[in-house]
């Protein structure tokens, strides 16, 4: 049995604002978010995926103070943040790192190469579904393309931070940590073409890179 808890946002509506019609609209928006999450769970998706699509449904609904419906800051601009945590291992991420990561990517030669529009068969946030053994898996690949030498690249962006000495050792550990994940991506991508495949982890906040051939 599945359960999802959602919250429609901060703030208080006065009685004249929360009309019967508005109340129905808010409840319908919450229902859409719940249904989106349950659809993922019912199809065998993970709880992390279910939470993500439920939140996305709220963000896409202008009734809620998130995403499209977000209240403007004093500057007159949207200043948004979001975070997510995987309860299995307590890994967490936050959107506030995204702006810094994008800026750093554009500063680095490696980052600009990854985003080069001249690459063939390039895609960002590529969603794939396929069968690996007895399991049906759904993945989203951060970046993939075929370079000038005919090599298919599968790249995962990591917004990891590291302070102090031992950066190389830290990167080695991160590579081993994420190796099974990106090699699963490669197993799916091989069905799309005969190219040799290389895997990469890009750390824009560290200006660091790791790559290796897919098994």
- Residue fraction in strands: 15-25%
CATH class of the largest domain: Alpha Beta
CATH fold label of the largest domain: Lambda Exonuclease, Chain A
Summed up, the domain count is: 2
Structural class: alpha+beta
Distance between the termini: 38 Å
The chain-level mean pLDDT equals 84
CATH architect. name of the largest domain:
Alpha-Beta Complex
Contiguous low-pLDDT stretches (5 residues minimum) are none
Taking the sheet with the most strands, its summary is:
5 strands, mixed
Helix content: 25-40%
What spatial order of strands do you see in the largest sheet? Answer: 3-4-5-6-7
How many runs of DSSP E, i.e. beta strands? 7
- Based on CA atoms alone, the radius of gyration comes out at 20 Å
Characterize the overall form: globular
**Tally of alpha and pi helices:** 5
Which sequence of SSEs, written as H and E, runs from N to C?
HHEEHHEEEHEE
């Amino acid at each position: 049995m599945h359960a999802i808890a959602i919250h429609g946002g901060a703030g208080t509506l006065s009685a004249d604002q929360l009309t019967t019609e508005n109340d129905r609209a808010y409840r319908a928006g919450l229902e859409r978010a719940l249904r989106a999450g349950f659809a993922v769970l019912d199809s065998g998706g993970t709880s992390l995926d279910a939470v993500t699509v439920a939140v996305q449904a709220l963000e896409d609904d202008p009734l809620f103070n998130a995403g499209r419906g977000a209240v403007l800051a004093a500057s007159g601009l949207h200043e948004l943040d979001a975070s997510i945590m995987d309860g299995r291992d307590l890994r967490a991420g936050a959107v506030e790192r995204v702006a810094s990561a994008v800026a750093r990517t554009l500063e680095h030669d490696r980052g600009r190469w990854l985003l080069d529009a001249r690459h063939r068969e390039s895609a960002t946030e590529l969603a794939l579904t396929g069968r690996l053994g007895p399991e049906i898996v759904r993945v989203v690949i951060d970046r993939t393309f075929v370079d000038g030498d005919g090599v298919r690249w599968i790249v995962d962006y990591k917004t990891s931070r590291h302070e102090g000495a031992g950066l190389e050792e830290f990167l080695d550990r991160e590579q081993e940590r994420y190796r099974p994940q990106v090699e699963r991506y490669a197993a799916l991508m091989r069905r799309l073409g005969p190219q040799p495949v290389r895997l990469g982890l890009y750390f824009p906040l560290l200006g660091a890179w790791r790559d290796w051939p897919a098994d």
